[in-house]
Specification:
- The chain has 411 residues and is mostly helical.
- The protein has a single domain, classed as Growth Hormone, Chain: A (Up-down Bundle).
- It is 79% helix and 0% strand.
């Protein structure tokens, strides 16, 4: 019973910190329509600002996460939390156009690189100390779900705070989240026992042992297309709902677009956990296939609903949010389970690096599709251009189960 309580306590501590650290993630996507108008951005430029956050993540994650196989996780984690907070607060004071926004959001992405997967590494290392032979897939599901809870709160708080005090104050308030998490973790976490870790025999950025493990690579590539779809949705859904409102003169959404996005993201907590339970029941590969292909089909339908009744569009957005995150924990748990011995950090580094390349490409390609498919002019959109953008996202996501099949992922 003592070990069980300790495991729950550690899970609660790290998940709470993860939620606080995520409060800055959705500030730009939720305010993208504001920045498009205020800074006269094209949709492609807006996609760059939204996607560069994940480009910063992509650039830093191979070094920061693989370093956790060789050094204690805490200093990496704490410094990255500090960077996340400072970058958001600096955005409030210094961002005045595309270039300053790109730099500051890139720094925020670097902060994410040192918190998300290192946090998972820290969590699983502490749990392995308590119970080395346990299956931690359920705990991984709760941790990955806390990511979604943090993002949901980020959308909700960004929308509500900006309505009262504007976007500058919003960035300052939410930028305090990672800094609060840093102080909280400093006092709440038990000490690490890094000497117990088995260090890899290769140099820091040698990922060959990871790439030789085909099942792990399968999950990593599935995670990539999953992120492409997920972050295209999170980056553009507020703008899409705003466009749909313009097609319904005299009508409005029952709640704000940012609140709808927050709800669609928040439902990811039970969806991700239940997705993992489904994977344990019918097999990981089968569960991922079912969820990803259903999600792709719903994406196509959502893209055709700009002129549908607003209540139906709201409902479909929330359904899509459930499906988008239903496979998340199963994919990440698969990567952790297939990681070569001694290379958990390196495997998570590759998982994050390649996976979040999809997070960078998703918003960018979605915005590019809107510009290209628009029959009016660059910077404007049509119902048809939104449909094309959602279709592209759906096609990319549908390749995930195929990749898993051919790389012989074990379910």
């Amino acid at each position: 019973m003592t070990c069980e309580i300790s495991k729950r306590t550690i899970l609660t501590i790290i998940c709470l910190a993860e939620i606080l650290s995520m409060l800055t993630l959705a500030t730009v996507p939720a305010l993208l329509p504001t920045f498009i108008l205020e800074w006269s951005l094209t949709k492609t430029e807006a996609g760059w600002i939204s996607g560069t956050y994940y480009l910063g993540y992509l650039a830093a994650v191979p070094f920061l996460v693989s370093l956790t196989d060789r050094r204690p996780v805490k200093p990496i984690y704490f410094c990255s939390l500090l960077l996340s907070g400072i970058s958001a607060i600096s955005f409030a004071y210094f961002a005045d156009g595309i270039w300053t926004a790109l730099v500051l959001r890139t720094l925020g992405g670097i902060g994410l690189a040192g918190t998300y997967m290192p946090g998972l590494k820290l969590l699983t290392d502490l749990l392995d100390r308590i119970d080395p032979n346990a299956d931690h897939s359920r705990i991984v599901a709760f941790y990955t779900s806390s990511f979604g809870v943090g993002v949901a709160l980020s959308y909700l708080l960004t929308g509500e705070i900006s309505n009262f005090w504007g976007w500058n104050i919003t960035f300052i308030i939410l930028g305090a989240g990672p800094i609060i998490a840093l102080v909280f973790l400093f006092f709440a976490l038990p000490p690490e026992q890094f000497s117990a870790h088995k260090k890899p025999q290769t140099h820091l950025l040698d990922f060959r042992p990871v790439f030789r493990c085909k099942p792990a690579v399968g999950y990593i590539l599935a995670y990539t297309v999953h992120n492409f779809e997920l972050f295209a949705f999170r980056s553009w859904i507020v703008a899409y709902l705003g466009f749909a409102v313009t097609l319904h003169p005299g009508e409005d959404l029952l709640i704000t677009a940012s609140a709808i996005t927050a709800i669609s993201t928040l439902v990811g907590l039970p969806a991700s956990v239940l997705g993992n339970e489904l994977a344990q029941l019918i097999g990981r590969h089968k569960a991922i296939t079912l969820i990803m292909w259903t999600s792709s089909a719903v994406a196509v339908g959502l893209g055709l609903m700009a002129e549908a009744p607003l209540w139906a569009l709201t409902f479909m957005t929330i359904v899509y949010g459930i499906l988008l995150t239903g496979d998340s924990s199963s994919i990440t748990a698969g990567t952790v389970a297939e990681a070569p011995i001694g290379y958990k950090g390196a495997t998570l580094a590759v998982h994050s690096c390649i996976g979040f390349f999809g997070s960078f490409l998703g918003p960018l390609v979605f915005g590019l599709a809107l510009d290209i498919a628009s029959s009016t002019s660059i910077g404007s959109t049509t119902a048809e251009s939104w449909s094309w953008a959602f279709n592209i996202s759906a096609i990319v996501a549908a390749t995930g189960p195929v990749i898993l099949y051919f790389l012989r992922a074990r379910g």
